[in-house]
Amino acid sequence: MADTQKTEDVYDADLRRFLFSEGIDMPFSQAKSASGLSDVLTELDTDDPVVCEVKIFDGEGRGKQYLAKGVHQVAHYAEDHRKHVAYLVMINLSGRLLSFPDASESKTWPPYIDIAGVRVYLIAVRALPPVTASKLGKAKQFVVTHDDLVDPDSID
Fold first, then answer.
1. Bridge partner residues of 24 (DSSP)
2. CB of 149 within 8 A of CB of 71?
3. Could you read off the pLDDT of 85-97 as tens digits, one per residue?
4. CA-to-CA separations, 92 to 9, 42, 76, 89, in angstroms, rounded
């Protein structure tokens, strides 16, 4: 936990193993594009490609702005490969639930947002729960809005 880059690498490797065990072809490769190296990029020649970025969320140093960075990155990776679907996998280490109330009109899972012609699916994965669920008490959540992830007025 002290080195968040190593933490992200651990979860990235675990995600790749999971995808491989589920039959995704070559989730261990990283293809370089104009925007850099995506975390997971595979099956680009199919109707169901996987363009994926992994981000750690701890609710403090790596909070909503860090997730927004991930949305921006994965949307660029998808555009680089002329794809219209991408996935942001958020490893939630905060001990609180992530909520995306306006991520999509329909109540489907996973929630998504559309940005510049790319649909970014938001997949939150709880990790390292601080205590058992029966001892957590009242539900606490981090609410992440569309504007938290995509600033329509930003010139960056």
1. none
2. yes
3. 999 999 898 888 8
4. 14, 24, 23, 9
- Alpha-carbon distance of 148 to 122, in angstroms, equals 13
Whole-prediction pTM = 0.77
What is the token pair recorded at 98? 């992530």
pLDDT tens, position by position, 32-49: 665 666 655 555 566 666
The answer to whether 63 and 90 are in contact (CB under 8 A) is no
Which is nearest to 29 in space by CA: 18, 16, 47, 11? 16
What one-character-per-residue DSSP string does 26-58 give?
-TT---EETTEE-SEEE-TTSSS-EEEEEEEE-
Q: Which residues pair with 41 in a beta bridge?
A: 51
Largest CA distance in the chain: 47
Of 86, 73, 84, 66, residue with least CA distance to 7: 66
φ, ψ dihedrals at 3, nearest 5°? -110, 95
